[in-house]
Amino acid sequence: MSSYVEEIIEQVIKQNPAEPEFHQAVREVLESIKVVVDANEEKFRRDGLLERLVNPERQIKFRVPWVDDKGNVQVNTGYRVQFNSAIGPYKGGLRLHPSVNLGIIKFLGFEQIFKNSLTGLPIGGGKGGSDFDPKGKSDREVMAFCQAFMTELCKYIGADTDVPAGDIGTGAREIGYMFGQYKKIRGLFEGVLTGKGLSYGGSLARTEATGYGLLYLTEELLKTHGQDMAGKTVVVSGAGNVAIYAIQKAQQLGAKVVTCSDSTGWVYDPDGIDVAALKQIKEVDRARLTEYKKFRPNSEYHEGRGVWQIKCDIALPCATQNELDIEDAKQLVANGAIAVCEGANMPTTEAATKYLQDNNVWFVPGKAANAGGVATSALEMSQNSERLSWTFDEVDAKLKNIMVNLFHNIDDAAKKYGFDGNYVVGANIAGFEKVLDAMNAQGIV
Ligand code: NDP
Q: Is pTM beyond 0.85 here?
């Protein structure tokens, strides 16, 4: 007889065809919590525990019609998957990218359940977005899309039910337009979105949180193994919110970051990435990385992908899913890398993850390593509830504390179940145990 875990993985593939990223995420989580499931198989089967875990509580798909600058109507598809509310209101970002489909949103929503649990804060798992591409659109077009998107989404969210945030393509500008529309339609000034601007309820340090949190965790990982960030060479992919602040914090900790990338090419800067130049190009001018050479003539720009070829001690993938494959993993190992910590969600393929682990590279999955973003979003919710704003240093100190504790929780969980140093297993089990406890306590709902 096949195991409960194997049966559920098969069922997910059968019932959700053409959603490979969702299958990948479910497989990774269920295989690593198998040791817990096997020990409780009879009870879990009777309670339909895994069936309830892999089926979203609710998924919403809607039409988003808006008018472009030429007066033509454009129609996009919007999604919100409310995956699991066992430990708190649904929480997770909104991705705006042409690659978005239901399977991508479900993979992200599923991962979010365990990530949010790992933060130790009371937030459930959800994710949303649209196949709208903000690139090349005017401000007015972006506003028109955001308003149309929120006109429908506002029926399903609220400060105590579901609190979306930013993700790829959804930055401060988009959150602002969406918040304005929510307030206008619902007549409520409440903390329904996080990642808001500072003048209307945003939290200091939220912008920096995912990248900074990634480095606080990486630093703790190294410390646990008797090493530290100072003097390390770091390779980063991406040039967005996560990448920029990961680079900045790595440099503050004394490391040298030599690469970054965007969806068309990558930069190698042997003298260390110039964060001010990167911010100007990506946050202000919204331009391509081809511009970087104008600021740093000694740097190299290459079309396509290639950051993982560069020799480093630590690799931090911070762009998108499945951007680090088996060939990249082999190159990293051959170059002597000691750690890979995921800033993006599931950037490492399954085969690459296994290769890194088999070759003794410390590997920390995104659901743990990038949890600083959502943790700080939860801190923004707390500030909104008490109508107060904490200082940058207060938020940053809480973030650091959360990431350090998180690392030790996953390290301890891995050890407890006999998987010492396997942070994938540690993260999945530690995240799962709290959700399981809450689901059991609340009965069959
Ligand atoms: P941004 O949109 O700010 O930046 C994404 C970066 O990755 C950009 O440089 C973009 O290139 C590049 N990129 C996006 N898609 C692709 C692709 N298909 N191929 C190659 N490069 C690509 O997003 P974030 O920095 O916010 O998010 C990055 C990752 O981190 C995502 O996986 C996200 O889910 C995850 N994450 C984000 C959090 C946050 O707080 N923002 C929290 C936790 C996880 P270009 O500049 O050309 O668009």
A: yes
The continuous run of DSSP H or E covering 376 comes out as helix 372-385
Number of H helices, E strands in the chain: 18, 13
Assess whether 127 carries a catalytic annotation. yes
- Taking the CA of residue 210 as reference, the ligand 1 atom at the shortest distance is 40
Catalytic residue among 91, 127, 256, 367: 127
Nearest to 307 by CA among 318, 298, 291: 318
Q: What is the DSSP string of 313-373?
A: SEEEE-S-TT-B-HHHHHHHHHTT--EEE-SSSS-B-HHHHHHHHHTT-EEE-HHHHTTHH
Q: What share of the chain is helix, strand, coil (3-state, %, to 5)?
A: 50, 15, 35
Nearest-angstrom CA–CA distance, 281 and 194 = 25
Q: Distance (Å, rounded) from C-alpha 391 to C-alpha 249?
A: 18
Q: What angle do CA 436, 438, 440 make, to 5 degrees?
A: 65
- H-helix or E-strand spanning residue 256: strand 256-257
Q: Which two tokens stand for residue 103?
A: 């399977």
Q: Where are the alpha helices (DSSP H) in 83-164?
A: 102-118, 139-153
Domain boundaries, the chain: 57-190, 207-369
Mean pLDDT by 10 residues, the chain (445 residues): 93 97 97 96 97 98 98 98 98 98 98 97 98 96 98 98 96 97 98 97 97 98 98 98 98 98 97 98 95 97 97 98 97 98 96 98 98 98 97 98 98 97 97 97 95
The CA distance from 233 to 251, in Å, is: 10
Domain spanning 57-190 has what CATH number? 3.40.50.10860
Angle (CA) 232 370 302, round 5°? 60
Give, using CA atoms, the residue closest to atom 43 of ligand 1: 370
CATH of domain 207-369: 3.40.50.720
Within 13 A of 40's CA, how many CA atoms are on the CB side? 14
- Report the C-alpha gap between 128 and 104 in whole angstroms: 9
Euclidean distance between CA atoms 23 and 324, whole angstroms: 18
Give the Å distance between the CA of 238 and the centre of ligand 1.
6
Question: What length is written for the chain?
Answer: 445
Other beta carbons within 10 angstroms of residue 441's beta carbon come to 8
Q: Which of 33, 81, 69, 90 is nearest to 143 (CA)?
A: 69
Q: Do domains 57-190 and 207-369 have the same CATH topology?
A: yes
DSSP state of 442: T
CB of 238 within 6 A of ligand 1: the answer is yes
